[in-house]
Amino acid sequence: TNPAHIRNFSIVAHIDHGKSTLADRLIQFTGGLTEREMKEQVLDNMDIERERGITIKAQTVRLEYPAKDGETYVLNLIDTPGHVDFAYEVSRSLYACEGALLVVDAAQGVEAQTLANVYQAIDADLDIVPVLNKIDLPAAEPERVCQQIEDVIGIDASEALRISAKTGVGIPDVLEAIVTRLPAPKPGDPEAPLKALLVDSWYDTYLGVICLVRIMEGTLKKGMKVRLMGTGAAYHVDGVGVFRPAKQVVDSLGPGEIGFLNASIKQVRDARVGDTVTDDRRPTGTPLPGFKPAVPVVFCGLFPVDSAEFEDLRDAVERLALNDASFSFEMETSAALGFGFRCGFLGLLHLEVIRERLEREYNVDLITTAPSVIYKITMTDGTVIDLHNPADMPDPVKINTIAEPWITATIFVPDEYLGGVLKLCQDRRGIQRELTYAGSRAMVVYELPLNEVVFDFYDRLKSITKGYASFDYQWKDYREDDLVKMSVLVNDEPVDALSMIVHRSRAEARGRGMCEKLKDLIPRHMFKIPIQAAIGGRIIARETLSALRKDVTAKCYGGDATRKRKLLDKQKEGKKKMRQFGRVDIPQEAFIAALKMD
Ligand code: GTP
Which residues form the Tr-type G domain (predicted)? Predict the structure, then answer.
């Protein structure tokens, strides 16, 4: 295809502002899908994505559009994930585009991820067309939202499109705008040595690793031998194609085009995103700048509830990692939990998504230990270590300083909930940097220790604001502080899975809260159980779970046999998901619930 007739673009938006719905409409209007196929949202194809309405794996689709100027254009839409944890995937896909549609819900206005995502698009030098979606809603205020886009983001919104992705109003204007207001890719020489950007890669059961590539120069053909310049490995190209959205084989891809190649690459790790794909026999002299690899920032231990399931867990974790190069894992043994894995994630949502997939798709019951960030510990002898498991904390007398990561958080919230949000940030050791109003919403910027955010910040924020706040964060820096390891003892035995690193000033309150929660969560036993929190050898909080005195069935007076059986069944049910610590059974929920702060 002549590059002048190609448009490569992304849609950037806050979650729920209608990105997937718009993508489906564009596919439908250009004939890529029948009405029946439309029923299922096609671009979000994983179960969990659909349930939670979030896009995780970036996907692309090629549309053919006969424009008003009489020419037929190839429009390559690159779907980008909308959530902060996947910011890295957003940024890498943007480098394959020349333009972006900025979708803003006309009733909601600009939100935290609108801002984060559009700034990435601006950083990637893309041309941006603002699109106000959901104008069919009675609450839509397109004028106000246009003004807000100009005030908050600082781009011209006078020619923003007004559409409803749901009803289809304005979709033809979007297609025209893509052609007339977004630039074509820079022309490249089809005869030059191949130079292509590896935009994304994922594992396909039938074809092995599939690489999504954007051709800069040269031509990619089936049968040629390509080299990935970052790793140096060469592969025979078994197939070349495009997504329409179903895979369609093509003869070749030329400059400006986006498509896929499959080349019997075994692991996603071997096809590194940002790598340059070139011709093995005639390599380009100038590889593309490349990307930073996505680094995990949140860690936690995953252990099977039933230790006999360890091999199943290993299998599941390995298979998941095949398709997610940003998920890392290594074996871990815990005195209390036995064998498991220490896993690294891009953020909390990533953690939750992986945990859910393991439980649901791979059918293993898991115990998740306290999430931790990476602490930088300077020892008295000057060495610095990265600590991402509180259980590995060195002896405090050998520690000189401990530093923890900080983030800058941007929160958009309706006025009436502002007080609650400020209090939450303050309680989490936050430092306020900015407080501005845009309409009836406030934009608050806080610096926060990531450690205070990884536990249940999202959950708390949502409940305080009834779901109306939006949140996004950026990495800031490392800061030293007075941090200590708090351990939890149940029946005088340390439960390493519950130990955590906290700020000294918060330790007592956290310890007390944790002991109180555990007291409610652990069922009573035939003996008295002390539950304690400690820093080093010093107990800072204590609760006692009193002994069970009577048989649970005693109060059934022996008369009602079915009730008695039900009660016993219920007990058995409860037993299933428990782990034994010394003589004490701790239910699985206790591990997660105990970590939530109120
Ligand atoms: P993520 O995939 O989570 O990033 O969300 P998204 O931005 O792709 O949003 P999605 O397309 O899933 O739409 C979110 C919700 O808004 C869905 O319930 C849609 O049906 C609804 N929606 C999308 N466009 C419109 C519209 O034009 N009008 C109305 N009334 N609802 C819409």
Answer: 4-186
Residue 199 pLDDT greater than 50, yes or no: yes
**Residues 462, 426: contact at Cβ < 8 Å?**
no
Ligand 1, atom nearest to 55 Cα: 2
CA of 16 to the centre of ligand 1 (A): 5
| 133 in Cβ contact with 106 (< 8 Å) | yes
Closest atom of ligand 1 to CA, residue 17: 7
- Top pLDDT among 542 and 305 is at 542
17 is in an annotated binding site: yes
Is 127 marked as binding a ligand? no
Quick one: angle between helices 171-181 and 19-29, nearest 10?
Answer: 90
Residues with CB under 6 A from ligand 1: 13, 15-21, 44, 53-55, 82, 133-134, 136-137, 164-166
Is 239 part of any known ligand binding site?
no
Band of the pLDDT at 346, cuts 50, 70, 90? confident
Which position has the token pair 């007990």? 571
User: Candidates 14, 17, 20, 21: which one to mutate for ligand 1, based on the most atoms within 8 Å of Cβ?
Assistant: 21
pLDDT, tens only, 23-64: 888 988 897 555 555 555 555 455 554 454 444 444 688 999
- The reply to whether 18 sits in an annotated binding site is yes
Nearest CA to ligand 1 atom 22: 18
Backbone angles phi, psi at 236, to 5 degrees: -85, 130
21 CA → ligand 1 middle, Å? 5
Token pair listed for 275: 């790598």
Burial (0-12, 13-18, 19+ Cβ within 10 Å), 123: exposed
In this structure, which residue's CA is closest to atom 5 in ligand 1? 16
For 80, 101, 121, 460, the CA distances from 177, given in Å and listed in that order, are 20, 9, 17, 41
| Mean pLDDT along residues 85-104 | 80
Establish whether 570 is an annotated binding residue.
Answer: no
Mean local confidence (pLDDT), 277-293:
85
Instruction: Tell me the CA end-to-end span of the chain in Å, nearest whole number.
Output: 58
Strands 195-204 and 208-217: antiparallel
pTM to 2 decimal places:
0.71
For residue 309, give both structure tokens.
């399931």
For 454-489, b/e burial (b = at least 16 CB within 10 A) is bbbbbebbeebbeebbbbbbeeeeeeebebbbbbbb
